[in-house]
Every structure is written in structure tokens, then in C-alpha cells.
Design goal:
The complex is a heterodimer of chains A (112) and B (113).
Chain A lengths: L3 E3 L2 E5 L4 E6 L6 E7 L6 E7 L4 E3 L4 E5 L4 E6 L8 E8 L8 E3 L3 E6 L1
Parallel strand pairs in A: 2-11
Antiparallel strand pairs in A: 1-3, 3-8, 4-5, 4-9, 5-6, 7-8, 9-10, 9-11
Chain B lengths: L3 E4 L2 E4 L5 E7 L5 E8 L3 E10 L2 E4 L6 E3 L9 E3 L8 E8 L8 E2 L3 E5 L1
Parallel strand pairs in B: 2-11
Antiparallel strand pairs in B: 1-3, 3-8, 4-5, 4-9, 5-6, 7-8, 9-10, 9-11
Classes of the chains: A mainly beta (112), B mainly beta (113).
Chain lengths: 112, 113
Amino acid sequence: QQPVQSPQAVILREGEDAVINCSSSKALYSVHWYRQKHGEAPVFLMILLKGGEQKGHEKISASFNEKKQQSSLYLTASQLSYSGTYFCGTEGGSNSGYALNFGKGTSLLVTP
Amino acid sequence: DGGITQSPKYLFRKEGQNVTLSCEQNLNHDAMYWYRQDPGQGLRLIYYSQIVNDFQKGDIAEGYSVSREKKESFPLTVTSAQKNPTAFYLCASSFLGGGQPQHFGDGTRLSIL
């Protein structure tokens, strides 16, 4: 039931773009995206809901394909501060109390 | 400022000992969650609670217990039955319902002595 993230790791130069993917085998109510710096708490980035509504970060975009149960996070013109581990969390709806299943994470390193 | 506070930041457990991790929030959130994080494994759900005096098991609840006597507090006890407790434990909270972002505490790192 854990969503699958890809790639596992990516290294970018400052200013380059990256895409992180998240796919699930279950029907999804929403997909959440978080970023975690080493030893710190995850920080909320964005939520994508069924029906196309998005809530979150202005400088980061994402997509949610409900039929394919997939989401992608787009990081454009990357900055050094984008480095960290990105997690997607999938929400199955009221039957699971809206609790999240998180992927194993994608480690992103942005270099000067 | 509102937030979610976990304590202690570091905790050591002896064999056969129960330890309790504290989680307090003043965000007026109804839902609270406990996650365990191991290297390369992402976050795995231990328990969650949507209302006072009610809580549900997550994917890895064995060896753990919780209580929710107050809306603001959701302590996690790691019992001696949990044979591999060394991990980073994260508490989170959110408003009820779907599509609500979860706010995380700074975590507690638990190690075995």
C-alpha cells in the first residue's frame, strides 16, 4: 500500500529542473508532498485533491492523474535550498481516517 | 505562535523498559498522528486519533500504545514488546477531513542502551 516514488535520488546543478513521481496501487482521495531536511521535521509543500484542486507552494507545481493514481512534483530553476528528501503521502479517504501512506522518499541534492 | 512540540529530542531505552514520547499541539487540530522513520524507509504510521478518547492502529502498531485524554496531547509509549525501537519518531496533527496538511513536530530520536 506504500506509494512508489521515483527516482530514489537525483543530483542537480543550480538552475536545473527535476521531476519526482509518485504512484499508488489504490484509489486516491488526495496526494500530499513534503520536504525534509536531514534531522528535521518534514515541511508541507502541496496537496492535490481529486477534481483538480491544489493547495500549497507558489514556486512548486505538481500534477495528479486520478485515473492512473499518479502524481508528479515539478521543481523548476532549482535553488540550493531545494536540497532535501521529498516524500509523497497518499490519502485513501474516510475509510482510513484520512491518514497518509508515505513513499520511501526521493533524495534531491542541488549543487552550485 | 501555534505549533506542535515533541519531547524529549533524544531518548535512550534500556532492555525491558517502557518509554513515553510526548506530543503536544496548540493548533486546535482534532487529528493527531505518530510516525516512525527509519533510514531509507520513509514514514510509517503507528497510530492516529481523530477525537479525544479514540484512536486507531496504523500499519506498525505492534509494541506501541497511545492515549488521547486531551485534544492537545497524544503521547506514545514504546513498550518492551517493541524489539527494534531505535528510530526517529515524528508526531503530526491536522484538521479533520480530507485534504488537510499535516504539521509535524521536530521529532524524538530513540536509541537502545
